Amino acid sequence: MIRRRDFLHQGTLGATVLLLASKIGWASAAGSRTADSRIEVLFDEPLGTISPNIYGHFVENLSGVLYDGIWVGEKSPLPNVDGLRKSVIEHMRKIKATVIRFPGGCFADSYDWRDGIGPAEKRPRRTNFWAMGESEKAPASHRYDPNAVGTNEFVHFCKLIGAEPYLAANVRSLPASAFQQWVEYCNSPAGSTTLGDARAAAGYAEPFRVRYWGVGNESWGCGGEFTPQEYAVEFRRYATWLPTYGDNLNLIASGPNTDDWNWTREFLQEVLRKGPGELHRIYGMALHHYAWNLSRGKTQEWVAGKGEAVKFEPVDWYELLREGERMEGLVTGHWQVLSEFDHQHRVKLVVDEWGPWYRPGSEATPGDQLEQMPTLRDAVFSGMTLDIFNRHPEKVAMANCAQLINCLNSLYLAHEDKFVITPVGHVFELYAGHQGGQALRTIFSAPNLHYDRDGQAASFWGLRGSASVRDKNLTITAVNPSTNDPRLAEIALKGATVKEASMRFLSSADIHAHNTFEQRDVLVPATKAVTVSGGTLVVEFPPASVAALTIQLN
Ligand code: AHR
Fold it and tell me: Pairing state of beta strands 438-445 and 464-470?
């Protein structure tokens, strides 16, 4: 039986209808129907500020993610900015991408940042962590890392977008001094250190001011096969001293896989054996959760348990959402464990890898490892996940969708001159209004939906989402998971009145709808004004939809 950690240890082994939002007042498109659902936004129950970093991304040096996806090369005829794919930069600016994690993932714990600086032609080629899993079709750069993209190029990519870099340090195969010197290279002023001068000589006189640093990745698996106690000892050692240059460094500890409560508890227990002050070294506890097991309880086997990305039945649609729904329990559960040790909750959760993970076969570019085709199901899943983070703003400080391009839950697919925004990319655009908003407790009441799960009656909630307010702008996002039924919802604002409202959403009559290089606009957001009647909004959420309402308040 192959479990996920074994896999990672081996390392490499139709016609779509664009539904238009109805112009809805009580008696217009809603017709004689009465609302079956209700959303109450409670303005006097703020939950906390939604960290913009919840809308974060992840770029690993893995197969087509970096080389082909992001990096096309300075001499490429393809539209690029200093070798970086222009279309990616442009769309990431549009969705206000906030933070990007690099260079892994499992790759991080075999990466030496020193290979990626200095003149490009002098940089060494190294065997990529993922090399052994590459297919024969894969270009050499996917197997043997040319190091064309190093710290300078990645940070430049972030700055072009307006995002912050989040770098993951190598704990498995480099000493703590290499971590210290990476920080020094990035953050020391030109003229102060040899490494600061090396950065300046490469054209980057201003310090990068990298504030987010991961101390290893999945240290329970590909990051070193540590026990939580062993990793805690390493964490303390790597975190004991790092140079700062006026900016606090936010260290993120390698956290649990899904519901491994034991990892969180025993890591903290061991860290704190040296005293409560050790807690101050930890900004965040990472948490990874992939929705991969679509076997409906038949197996826990990593390969056999996975489902298809595009060819699926409605029951598989619901199974994925059930797997995704686990995120809420993971956030509250690990938070509960943190509270056993950290009564003031200084340490936040950083969900730095999340998304669905299907079996191979749907790659837009055959040969790209771990690449899959995101469909409407993944858009709904992503909206649902972002809503969970929005509902827990005091707990989740950052989240990074895995991964940005040519990989698992990608926002983009690209190959040579081809580029497409996936439904997941569109969800990030729909949800951008939540960034930095004040989350409000919001009650979604809707009938559960019912379906057949291998002869057993199964049910799932009928409508859920999140709401936040910034200045006079209220954003409500919601997911209707039903593959068949629309939800007609009455929205009541308790403590505010509406000036005007509009809605954008993604939906399709085909639950498998997706965008390809050839058909790039099969699934794109539809927009329509929403009418208000007597201070109440009535909105129809189409079946299988993810929606964002933008409401201007008086
Ligand atoms: O995102 C792909 C891989 O999944 C990452 O490299 C690893 O951290 C995780 O297990």
Answer: antiparallel
- Quote the pTM value: 0.94
- Looking from the CA of residue 104, the nearest atom of ligand 1 is 6
Give 106 Cα–ligand 1 centroid separation in angstroms: 6
- Minimal-distance CA residue to ligand 1 atom 3: 105
Q: Does residue 138 sit in helix, strand or coil?
A: coil
Residues 6 or more apart in contact with residue 518 via CB below 8 angstroms = none
pLDDT (tens digit per residue) in 298-356:
999 999 999 999 999 999 999 999 999 999 999 999 999 999 999 999 999 999 999 99
Q: What is the pLDDT of residue 5?
A: 53
Looking only at the bridges linking them, the beta strands covering 164-169 and 212-215 are parallel
Cβ of 66 closer than 6 Å to ligand 1, yes or no, is no
Only one residue has tokens 């993932």, namely 105
Ligand 1 nearest-atom number relative to CA 408: 1
User: H or E segment at 141?
Assistant: helix 140-143
Residue 402 in contact with ligand 1 by CB distance below 6 A: yes
Residue 3 banded pLDDT, cuts 50, 70, 90: low
Q: Are 195 and 185 in contact (CB under 8 A)?
A: yes
| DSSP string covering 477-494 | EEEE--SS--EEEEEEEE
For residue 14, what are its two tokens? Answer: 């139709």
* 13 pLDDT above the threshold of 50: no
What DSSP assignment string belongs to 269-332? HHHGGG-GGGGGG-SEEEEEEEE---STTS---TTTT---SSS--HHHHHHHHHHHHHHHHHHH
Ligand 1 atom with the smallest distance to the CA of 403 is: 1
CA of 179 to the centre of ligand 1 (A): 21
pLDDT (tens digit per residue) in 408-462 = 999 999 999 999 999 999 999 999 999 999 999 999 999 999 999 999 999 999 9
For residue 216, give every residue at least 6 positions away whose Cβ sits within 8 Å of its Cβ, in sequence order, or none.
108, 109, 168, 169, 170, 171, 172, 223, 224, 231, 234, 235, 238, 254
**Three-point CA angle 439, 442, 444, nearest 5°:** 145
Q: What is the DSSP string of 334-389?
A: HHHHHHHH-TT--SEEEEEEEEE-PPS---SSTT-TT-----HHHHHHHHHHHHHH
Ligand 1 near 486 CB (within 6 A): no
Q: Angle CA(143)–CA(146)–CA(151) in degrees, nearest 5?
A: 120
At residue 531, the pLDDT reads 74
Are 65 and 405 in contact by the 8 Å Cβ rule? The answer is yes
- Index of the ligand 1 atom closest to the CA of residue 129: 6
Residue with tokens 């700062």: 244
Q: Mean pLDDT across the stretch 517-538? A: 90
